[in-house]
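As a representative case, we now present a protein record of this kind.
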Amino acid sequence: MFRFRGEQMKAFFRQWQLQSMVIPGIVWMIIFCYLPMFWLVIAFMDYSIAKPMLESPFVGLKHFEAFVSDDRFWRSIRNTLGMSSIKLILGFPIPILFALLLNEIRSLRFKRTVQTISYLPHFIAWTIFGGIALNWLGEGGVINQLMMAIGLQDREILFNSDAKYFWWITFFTDTLKETGWSAIIYIAAISGIDPGLYEAAELDGAGRWQRMWHITVQSIRPTIAILFILAVSGILGSNFEQIFMLKNNMNMKMAESLDLYIYNMGLVSGRHSFSTAVLFARSIVALGLLFMANQTSKKLTGDSIF
């Protein structure tokens, strides 16, 4: 064991130039991810920005009890779970299917063109993409024109002004924007599959769909399992930028997610300790979901993060 560690250290020093490239990332993580965790203590205080943090009075679980009894908090939980569940159940398989279908394209030029086009929306900020989506969904927008042209509706609908459409709007806009980017990791996993497996299966008489299911899908199963575990652990999170751009007073009852609730309580209302308590509780639940999803995946598929 000590010999193994010694070999690892020798390899580290031989590659010190390459290894040193991770230092900026480690520094960034320490500054922006670990140091701010110290300020979680304000969840147990009546913190005021007008005086030093350590002079704020300790109030124990006061803020935790306050948000648990807040109806608006439970509404934000419902909205977050609703939007996240739709994205998890319907949205999670879409990048996988896209990567599988892209892998079946034989023309390299066409394949690269499709990949490039699918990636581009990811690099458009939600401040711009959200504005485009609102234009499409508005009166006289392309969605209304298309739906009327194919006979699915006989009049124009203000989709973003009706709260019942909001969860589906977030799903479709997120899928349109992120499918190509999310598929990158699956495409990378597929590219590492031994081509000899496909040749052997073809000689055995396996069709294209059989090769896709029994070779491609089974080979990338560990990648799918890991990303699914991470998706489950993040189910209480939401795309804040997307929701912030698409929300309005008419759809707020279905639009206020947990992230938006924290923002409204912390920055808009100035209840910093209260919002920190909500964030703290959400992080604990997310950690529990991570362990639960990891153990479930390990038992059912044998694949897990740890």
Q: What stands out?
A: The mean pLDDT is 91. The chain is about 70% helix and 0% strand. The CA atoms of residues 201 and 210 lie 9 Å apart. The two ends are 21 Å apart (CA to CA).
